[in-house]
Amino acid sequence: MAQSETSQHWIDHLIFSESVRRIRAWLEPSGIYQGLSPLEQELLERLVHSSGDVEVAPLVAWSPQACVTGAAALAQGAVILTDTAMAAAAVGPMARRTFANPVHTLLEWAPPTVPEGAPASETRSSLGMAAALKALGGQSLGGEAQDARPLVVLIGSAPTALETLLDLVAAGSCPAPALVIGMPVGFVGVAESKRHLAESGLVHLRLEGPKGGAGLVAAACNALLRRAWLEAA
Q1: How buried is residue 167: exposed, middle or buried, by Cβ count under 10 Å (0-12/13-18/19+)?
Q2: What are the DSSP calls for the chain, one per residue?
Q3: Residues that are catalytic
Q4: pLDDT averaged over every residue in the chain
Q5: Comparing C-alpha atoms, which of 64, 95, 79 is closest to residue 205?
Q6: Which residue of 45, 110, 130, 184 sits 20 to 30 Å from the alpha carbon of 27, by its own alpha carbon?
Q7: Cα(228)–Cα(38) distance, rounded to whole angstroms?
Q8: Contact, 105 vs 84, CB < 8 A?
Q9: Closest to 95 in 3D by CA, of 210, 228, 233
Q10: For position 144, what pLDDT does the model report?
Q11: % residues pLDDT > 70 (the chain)
Q12: How many CB atoms lie within 10 A of CB 104?
């Protein structure tokens, strides 16, 4: 690495470290860190840093051991499935530098258009999710899984994709992912899909309310990849 690149890397590190220090100064008085593991605290801080919004912190929720389970799955080379190209682009570099996890978007399997006369709940994202789960190991047609690796699903945009995932898992049409990071953003169908995720029994991370997005699901996944890589070193 050239000297200028090294210097810039060091400056970026100092800025990030100072950012985390300030985030902790804002959050610690609230008591939000109480009961959190170091990994959960780190993930919380990464989400606040990525969003630039300390009000995101109390909205973060997870099922028991979700962070540990997700990090372990990623360390095993889990396939990462996202609902947007933006999230895939944000996760791809970290995945390549760590465990070489394959990264896909459900758009790779989505049809160009929704069939005429389809119900409103059927979108390109929901159809893409169903096809992706089948291709990546689903057994809706009774076939054998094509990929024995665990699956980590990132939903930062499309609540219909999240609902399709939950429906297919509940019906036994596909295996449950090792981790679902459910943070769709918006005001239509978003709160309902997050509530259904919370009630699903799946291992998951979620962000309550209308906030979310590709950047946040990517930040959560990258935090888990980074921690798993450091612990494996």
Answers
A1: middle
A2: --HHHHHHHHHHHHHHHHHHHHHHHHHGGGTTTTT--HHHHHHHHHHHHHHT-GGGGGGEEE-TTHHHHHHHHHHTT-EEEESSHHHHHHHHHHHHHTT---EEEGGGT--SSPPTT--TT--HHHHHHHHHHHHTT--TTSPPPS--S-EEEEESS-HHHHHHHHHHHHTTSSPPPSEEEE---SSSSHHHHHHHHHHS---EEEE-SS---HHHHHHHHHHHHHHHHHHH-
A3: 49
A4: 90
A5: 64
A6: 184
A7: 13
A8: yes
A9: 228
A10: 45
A11: 90
A12: 16
| Pick from 221, 228, 230: nearest CA to 90 | 221
pLDDT, one tens digit per residue, over 190-212 is 999 999 999 999 999 999 999 99
Q: Are 211 and 56 in contact (CB under 8 A)?
A: yes
Q: Residue 183: its pLDDT value, please?
A: 98
Using the predicted structure, report yes or no on whether residue 5 has a pLDDT greater than 70: no
pLDDT at 4: 62
Give yes or no for residue 92 having a pLDDT over 70.
yes
> Which tokens is 57 given?
């912190």
The residue among 121, 185, 134 whose CA lies nearest residue 155 is 185
Answer whether residue 145 shows pLDDT above 60.
Answer: no
Q: Which of 14-18, 77-81, 114-118 has the lowest mean pLDDT?
A: 114-118
- In the chain, what is the straight-line distance between the N-terminal and C-terminal CA atoms, in Å? 21
Q: Pick from 68, 27, 90: which is nearest to 216 by CA?
A: 90
Of the candidates 176, 179, 131, which has an alpha carbon nearest to the alpha carbon of residue 153? 179
Question: Is the confidence at residue 8, as pLDDT, over 70?
Answer: no
**Looking only at Cα atoms, what is the longest distance across the chain?**
60
